[in-house]
Amino acid sequence: MSTQFDDHMTDTVSFATPGRLNGESPAPADADPISAARDMATMVRARRRQRLTFDGAQGEVVYVLRNGLLAIEAFPPGKPRQILSLIYPGDIVRRSQLPDLPAATLTALSSSEIWRFPVATFDALVTANPPAIRHVMKKLATQQARSALHASIVGGLTGDERFASLLIELGLRLPSSGAAARIFDMPLSRADVADHLALNPDTLSRITSRFKARGLLSTTGGHVSLPDWTALCAASPIASTLQALHAPGAA
Length: 251
Known about the structure:
The chain is an alpha+beta fold and 251 residues long. The protein has seven helices and 13 strands. It has two domains: 14-129, Jelly Rolls (Sandwich); 154-246, Winged helix-like DNA-binding domain superfamily/Winged helix DNA-binding domain (Arc Repressor Mutant, subunit A).
């Protein structure tokens, strides 16, 4: 996959004080009640490959992704990096709800806007607002289902099936500029894909070549095209489950 293959780097994340920035238009309106809590959050604008810690000066923090794409990474001693989860707009991340793995970080895979709440502020917000309670419970349950599905993908599917499943997920989640084919900017590097799918980079290269030969994938620079969506879905035994979890309108 000749997409954006660059090295990881840690950079300084730019923060804005809580509330609206000077001259800034409000975030796009949506149906979730968290959107009304903007003035209680610190907005974080992260560039690609910037990393965010799960603890702030006053303890644990809660992140809500508004735009972009994030990844939860872990670095077990003596083991390769693991990308545990992809975080999409609307997702909620807090350290206490993640496995207790060493050096866990939240990394921006694309330019992203994240709202950061002190955990006490976020919990008080949710407790005082019944619609927010329902929204957060549904969101976290859906994220847990996605994590369980990813574990089953890595543990039970072949390399080709894993790759097809990831392409379906990204095709459903990322903005597409194509009509007949799904075309999107690829935010994951080759190393990201390999680490997320637990594949050897050489194995991933061979799989990518097979998908191109079968007409399931084409790449140009940082753009990915999925020319035959029906055939791609047929290449994954869990395509219908992926569509239920990731299609527009899914929690």
